[in-house]
Amino acid sequence: MGSALARLVRGRARTDHLTDGEREVLAAAERELDGDSYAVLLAVAGGEHRRLPDLIAALSDAQRRSCVPHLKAWRTRLREEWGYQARPRRRALVIAGAGCHTGAAAAAQWLGHTDLSLVEPADTPCLLAVLGDRPAHWQGDVAHRVAGRRQADSEWGWGHYTLVEALVLRSGCAVPTGGAFVQEWVRNRSWPSQPQHRPGAPDGTPYSLLERLRADPFLDALAPLMFEVEGVGALLTEGTDSWPKALAALAAEGRLERSTLLDGCLSRLLRGGRPAELRGFLSVLNGLAPTDDEYAARATTLLRLLPDAPSTVAAHAQERLTALDAAGRLDDERLAQASRAVLFRTEKKLVRAQLSWLDAAARRDRGRAGAVVLAAADALGHEDTALQERALNLIARHLKHAGDAVLPELASAAEALSPTLRPRAAELLGVEPPDDGAAGPWEDLLPPVPEPVPLAPPLATAAEVAEEVGAVMAAVRAAEFRPATAPGVDAAAFERALDGLVRHAHRDREGLVRALEPVIRDRPWNGRHAWWGDPGPGHLHYMAAVLCGEDAPVAPSASGAHAVPHPHGRNLTPFGEVLAVRLLEAAWRVLNDPPPFLLATPTTADGRIDPAELVARLAEYERAGAVPGPCDLDQALLRLDVSAAGPGVLAAAGRLGGEAGRRVRAWLEAGGPSLPEPVRDARPTHRLRGYGSPVVRVRLSTEAVALPCVLGPAFQGLLGRYIADGKRDETSWNLGVRLWPSVLPVHRELVALRLQPTFAATGDEDLRGGAALLPALAEAGGAAGEAVHLGLAHTLGARHPEDRTAAVDALLVLAARGDLDAARLGRDVAETVAAGTVKPNRLLESLREAVRAGAPATVFAVLAAALPGMLAIREPVRGLPDLLALAAECAGTCGARGPVDGVAQAAARGGGGRLVKEARRLRDVLGAPATA
User: Fold this and answer.
1) pTM for the complete prediction?
2) Which of 115, 119, 298, 634 lies in disulfide reach of 159, CB 3.0 to 4.6 Å?
């Protein structure tokens, strides 16, 4: 049957849909294999995976092994083919390789290979058919090896699971206990691929999760391991049934050990993890409904959850400990331990609950007053002034029952209080108030002013160039699917490598090609995927491919225009246009008119070029008879640090000949471009791609930049008129975004202007990584004007902590350099809060971080300008009392005095609301006599 089937496959084989590389593999197989073996390759070519079990069954082990080298070669050719058309061939290739490898280790390695990761559960029958003629121990070995090659991953499923499960059941081997298998077992039981229905059920009702687990042969082995595998917790609340209810029922029936489940949940919660992960285990714990006796036996674990667990987990532990204490099952030492763990947490709800617990404990038993007030003293150092005051009130309420022995320790703890509360604490404890003016005028502790770092010398040899290009490509590939978190490639590394390619193509192109060949061989160039979206550091691959003959560069336009036409897509940002024309110009010139080096290579790591160095480079061009590339010269001009140009540089520039010399001289004499004043508005705009309801954003628009001389079309697009539409670029997923500041290193306002929709989206969209460029802009050159400050205002209220941290870093650097206009930033903050882009609670976190870094005076200056606008908003601003409290704390720390508009009016309102209370406190601090 095998030969007849092979003849049938050969008779209907088609190869016109294959790539050139696949046809080469097929031709080699036809020369080297017999007819039956060759039919396996033809079935792969046709994507006929269902025919493979019969074809392979007809082969001997020797014939199967003869197919393996050709299947491996095919796998290599399919590596870069991810289109839908290649999927049937990929599926067939997986099945063919599994059946043709005769060793268990080799078969498992084939199935687990990264290039064949798209195994589909529907292929399990075919895979079982090609593996089914092997001995049981062989199949079990394959199952364990395949399971062992996979790491647990909570984000997506594992196509091999159904195959491994079937092999385990068929072979009777031990159940795999690796993390991936456990995780996929849970996912499969939550969402069975082939749900079984109750026989005779009129509505076709499938078995419930509880019923499936009762009959599960893997339950006893895998259920205890659920608590040890990352990613399982998030699955426990998925599916059509409830794992918590099912596990509780199995424990009640005695099928699972209840204590094992309880200890497993608590130990997993103690280990920590993502909120979604822990919610699943917390749901299981709640489903088990532990008794007071069970919790009392595990009180130590509950206490260990309090300091670091997510707030929902800590709140659960705190609630159970409070109940145990109310039942008289917790001693004073554990009460103090719980307080020490909770009272320094940032979550106000937890701190308030802890103080309420302490208050209730002292009310129940006056003999615990001493322990209670000492425990509450830990909250006197909390960063929130309102919580400090709450703790101080608790201490005042129970101090008379605590005795005098606690006073020295309380006085020591009171030193951490906000300056606004210290006089009251001193009066309560009977001590002298501290003399805060003895230290003299306050000075913020700001970071050192960053100095430009010189770029490393040019790469000396072709081997160094190849090594640097390979390192850039490897870093880009590592960041390909996680650019928001991966280190990526900085502009300095990109520019050195690009200059190295140009420089050594001029010196010895053949030697450079020899050095680059291993780099290209390791990752072949596929030009069809080039230039979709902004070019980035990875497009050095294109340069290397051009030099090695893998791609043909595009010639400049016949008219001599600066722009070079793009050979592929044009989904580019204005920064991407500039980077693209530079790369395309350099790629054409290295083959047709190689320059000795690039003019635009920076002299400092941030992208700037020293004017004296550019003049020297142009002089070297003149001596060599080289003509500057238009795009290369345009970029060099935009990087020119004109502030460093002295009279000697201007004189040297005047001695340069040609058009390039005249342009550089005009640029230096004019002092660079003249930036227009932006126009500001705040109106509704749509989010990214127009999805979602409109949001109000503060936006800046400008006319075109006035240039000392004309630049090419791509640069004119970057420097032309800018009309803000509010929609952000997805910069966090743009691998070229790290190069943007280096395009305009002495004109950071222009970079910030183009990035303002992205900065705004960090607050009113779920954009992560949108503030990553702010620290670089803080260190860049040029004026820090409206665009930089508005971007800073937006990102101080970013949704994600890493973006807020980047904004705080930028704030501190700007302050250290003397570039921060605190009044402007404060007004921007108030306007963005009024628009709804910035949430005050996120802004509060950022400003607190700046205070903790040692800059309370800077923060107060920002708040002093922001509070009048916020207090003038008609609708209640949630979080405004906290900002008033922070302003009072900063003012008390740095000794600020004098009125802030709107504060006295807010303090004069009736009622005892928190806003009025905090406004009065700030008014009193600002009105107190200065201590300096």
Assistant:
1) 0.78
2) 119
